[in-house]
Amino acid sequence: MTTSPFYIFLDFVDHDQKIIHNRKHFYLLSQEKKAITDKVNASKFRVEAVKEKLLTLRKQHDRLELDLQAFTDKRQKKEDQLLQVKNQKDLLSVEREISTFHKEEEACEEKIIALWEQLEQVQYDLIHIQEKETKFQRECSKKLQDIQQQQDEIEEVYSQLVQQRKEKLEHIRPEWKKTYEMLQKQVNNPVVPISNGACSVCGTAITSQLQAQLARNAIKNCSSCYRMLYVL
Ligand SMILES: [Zn+2]
Predict the structure, then answer these.
(1) Which residue segment(s) compose the domain that 179 sits in?
(2) Distance CA 167, CA 12 (A)
(3) Is 193 helix (H, G, I), strand (E, B) or coil?
(4) Residue 131: helix, strand or coil by DSSP?
(5) Using DSSP, how many helices (H) and how many strands (E) does the chain show?
(6) CB-side exposure of 141: number of CA atoms within 13 Å?
(7) What spacing in Å lies between the alpha carbon of 1 and ligand 1's midpoint?
């Protein structure tokens, strides 16, 4: 490779493009990691939601068992009173109360049976969802590890590229370096070739005089977009 300032500069520009590409790749992988992490969180949430549902049903079940016990106690107490009633009126009153408590007990029992069915279903759902989501989370974790490994490699390349850039920068003509660094703050492709006698980015035609200068390995700015133009 020739060591003329022109080629050294183009090599430097190419080097910077590698750095831009490296950073883009790293960024895209970060985005991918974030998307996967979001999916893992959603997956964990799905499992937690079923666990929560199960817990709510168990609490409902426990409350109903307590209610049932309370009605049973009340009924038994009334049944004990039956032995002590002194007249027909009191007997009827106590029997009515016993009947009411008995109905309450039956209602509780019905609800408990319905809850058992629900509990059984949700327990079954939980086992399956845990199995499915754990598998999914494991796959995601593997993907995240792979991406992390790729990113570590990209970071290593990046630090090498940055180091090499410092060395290359020392050999760039000061006037090119100044314009290049100024343009670099505005666009990610400050140096572009001409194509069919025009700037390859904005399409502005290049005068024949300028083309002649470019042909002698000069670097000139596009009159419109101000990018640095060259001809190979
Ligand atoms: Zn242009």
Answers:
(1) 173-232
(2) 10
(3) strand
(4) helix
(5) 4, 4
(6) 8
(7) 28
Extract long-range pairs of 56-62: CB within 8 Å, 24+ residues apart: 57/115, 57/118, 57/119, 57/122, 58/119, 60/115, 61/112, 61/115, 61/116, 61/119
User: φ, ψ for residue 29 (rounded to 5)?
Assistant: -65, -35
Q: Please tell me whether residues 104 and 16 are part of one structural domain.
A: yes
Instruction: Kindly give the distance from the C-alpha atom of residue 190 to the centroid of ligand 1, in angstroms, as a whole number.
Output: 10
What separation in Å is there between the alpha carbon of 9 and the centre of ligand 1?
19
Distance 162 CA to ligand 1 centre (A): 28
What is the Å distance from ligand 1's center to 193 Cα? Answer: 10
CA of 194 to the centre of ligand 1 (A): 9
Residue 171 CA, ligand 1 centroid: distance in Å: 26
pLDDT at 1 over 60: no
Please give the distance, rounded to the nearest whole angstrom, from the Cα atom of residue 227 to the centre of ligand 1: 6
Distance (Å) from CA 206 to ligand 1 centroid? 9
Question: What tens digit of pLDDT does each residue of 12-33 get?
Answer: 999 999 999 999 999 999 999 9
DSSP 144-186: HHHHHHHHHHHHHHHHHHHHHHHHHHTTS-HHHHHHHHHHHTT
Of 170, 192, 207, which one is at a domain's C-terminal end? Answer: 170
Per the structure, how many domains does the chain have?
A: 2
Name the pTM for this structure: 0.80
Residue 229's pLDDT band (cuts 50, 70, 90): very high
Indicate whether 197 and 212 sit together in one domain.
yes
Dist CA 214 CA 194 (whole Å): 9
